[in-house]
Design brief:
Elements (H helix, E strand, L loop, with lengths): L1 H9 L4 E6 L19 E8 L5 E8 L3 H4 L7 E9 L2 E10 L4 E7 L3 E8 L2 E10 L2 E9 L24 E8 L8 E10 L2 E10 L2 E16 L7 E9 L4 H14 L4 E3 L27 E5 L11 E3 L2 H7 L3 H9 L8 H14 L4 E3 L23 H6 L9 E3 L9 E2 L6 H9 L2 H8 L5 E12 L2 E6 L20 H6 L13 E6 L5
Parallel strand pairs: 15-19, 16-18
Antiparallel strand pairs: 1-2, 2-3, 3-4, 4-5, 5-6, 6-7, 7-8, 8-9, 10-11, 10-23, 11-12, 12-13, 13-14, 14-21, 16-17, 19-20, 21-22, 22-23
Helix pairs in contact: 3-9
């Protein structure tokens, strides 16, 4: 209870202040001396990790008249953050083209990051309680503050200078057709903060996720000059589907954009169950075991039973012994996938458990002997509902998925100016906090280094507690001691979750 109350006290936000001026508008202000006015400044106040309120302010060294002739694409922000009787250096950047800023500071017991633009801001916070850290994202408001003068401490650590800034990565399975199967990722790093965006596409269908991390520790690897071992934390606001659905409905109503929910209960990237006619007619999706067998021997898990509706599955098999009995009924030494399929059907039928087999991807002419890389699927699931002519793609459809990573399915490139509000204002998290949803703190660990001008970012080899998420790194865990105990590191193990960052002017906040 003491820990819980301490978290609540820390999250009580009192306010932030923001001011800026455009040098182009100063020519008519001859009566005012603007030479001493910064191009941009930000200030604020909130309940700190120590006793009393935390105050901060930051500004550019450039003044307003200088901005009229400056060609800089971003400006450094410096300032101070006061928490109790301690005063720390605050650093960040201001992007005049995007109108956004990020500033961060740290102490031995807290990490503070504030980012936003003229329309508002959010803060990503991590507070040490005992041996653990707790992470939060909070909304902020504008407020001017006065910070008393004193000796400013530079808290050592965080990410190295070469890693700080905006970066970009891109991959496609077919470079001549980048909308077939590809991803694009952006990031922003400063000393104590990592902001990650990932946009993926499958057959012209886009998905977008964003995560805000706090740097818990960053140490050089012994004997490897320039290689850093970094542990990040981030808040995960786990809410009910109903709460997330309401947040999305409010969001699309606020941006005045037509959207509707997909009539599907699972992640659309794993098209396992549909409500409707055809093979799914009459199926009970809430109380049936939905499963399939991968039928290609090239697949690392070929011929293994894959239970899709896992939550329903464990209601029928409440103990590990019962689950072992199910998988034990399958002869894994038998290379005939059809025999395995029949064995599963017979077992479930003998236990009077409703189930059905999922073929997947509407393979009208499925050939088990054909290499899966050469298969041609008839159509992607949503288009099959109306033959692609019923206007399904004319609207934005959205769905729910793991944790606070809520995906929006639609034309992100066309409507990015609207959809970016979801992440820039942390729309879902703001709503969930209003519903008193408390976040979990998750950790991940990576090694970073610079090579040939690129930024290499590779995750550690560890237990992947978030393995069901297409947006989660490979070694996420809720245990700081567990992430700290990881010793195995091999950059070849998780290439799909790693990044080859390339410099970019700005991140798409």
């Amino acid at each position: 209870m003491k820990r819980f109350l301490g978290v609540i006290a820390f999250m009580a936000v009192i306010g932030f202040g923001l001011s800026g001026c455009d040098g182009d508008n100063n020519n008519n202000n001859n009566n005012n001396n603007n030479d001493d006015q910064p191009l941009f400044s930000v200030s604020g106040e909130f309940k700190g990790a120590g006793s009393g309120n935390a105050l901060f302010r930051a500004e550019t060294a450039e003044t307003a008249p200088m901005s009229a002739r400056s060609v800089a694409t971003s400006y450094e922000l410096t300032g101070e953050l006061e928490d109790g009787d301690m005063l720390f250096r605050l650093r960040g950047t201001y992007d005049p083209q995007a109108g956004s800023y990020t500033v961060s500071s740290a102490s031995s017991f807290a990490r503070y990051t504030v980012n936003g633009d003229a329309s508002g801001a959010t803060a990503t916070l991590a507070v040490k309680q005992g041996e653990d850290w707790n992470s939060f994202i909070v909304s902020v408001t504008i407020k001017d503050v006065d910070i008393p003068e004193g000796e400013v401490e530079e808290y050592a650590g965080g990410l190295p200078l070469w890693a700080q800034g905006s970066w970009h990565d891109w991959w496609s399975v077919n470079h001549s057709n980048p909308t077939e199967n590809a991803f694009e990722a952006w990031s922003y790093f400063d000393q104590w903060y990592y902001e990650a965006y990932r946009s993926s596409v499958w057959r012209d269908n886009w998905d977008f996720t964003a995560t805000k991390y706090t740097v818990i520790s960053a140490e050089q690897v012994e004997g490897q000059n320039g290689v850093y071992d970094v542990i990040f934390s981030y808040p995960l606001y786990k809410a009910t589907d109903a709460q997330k659905k309401t947040a999305l409905e409010n969001f699309f109503r606020d941006i005045n954009h037509p959207a509707e929910f997909w009539n599907k209960k699972f992640n659309p990237w794993d098209p396992d169950a549909w409500i409707g006619g055809g093979d799914s007619e009459g199926k009970n999706f809430d109380n049936s075991v939905i499963w399939y067998i991968c039928m290609n021997e090239d697949h690392p898990h070929h011929l293994g039973a894959k239970v899709i509706n896992w939550e329903t599955f464990i209601t029928f098999f409440e103990t590990q012994e019962e689950r072992d009995e199910f998988f034990g009924a399958i002869d894994y030494d038998n290379n005939n996938w059809w025999d395995r399929k029949e064995a599963i059907e017979e077992f479930l039928e003998s236990k009077d458990i409703p189930s059905f087999y999922y073929w997947g991807w509407h393979e009208a002419d499925f050939d088990p002997e054909q290499d899966h890389h050469e298969r041609s699927y008839s159509c992607w699931e949503p288009a099959c509902e109306d033959g692609g002519e019923g206007g399904w793609w004319d609207k934005t459809h959205y769905y729910l998925k793991w944790g606070n990573q809520t995906g929006i399915q639609g034309d992100w490139d066309t409507y990015s100016d609207l959809f970016n509000r979801w992440t820039s204002e942390d729309y879902l998290i703001t709503y969930l906090r209003s519903q008193n949803v408390q976040p979990e703190t998750w950790y991940t660990r990576a090694r970073i280094w610079q090579e040939d001008g690129d930024f290499k970012f590779f995750y550690y080899n560890g237990d992947n507690e978030a393995h069901d998420s297409h947006a989660a790194p490979a070694c996420d865990t809720k245990s700081l001691s567990k992430i700290e105990s990881l010793m195995d590191f091999n950059p070849e193990t998780y290439p799909d979750w790693s990044y080859y960052w390339h410099p970019q002017r700005t991140s798409p906040r």
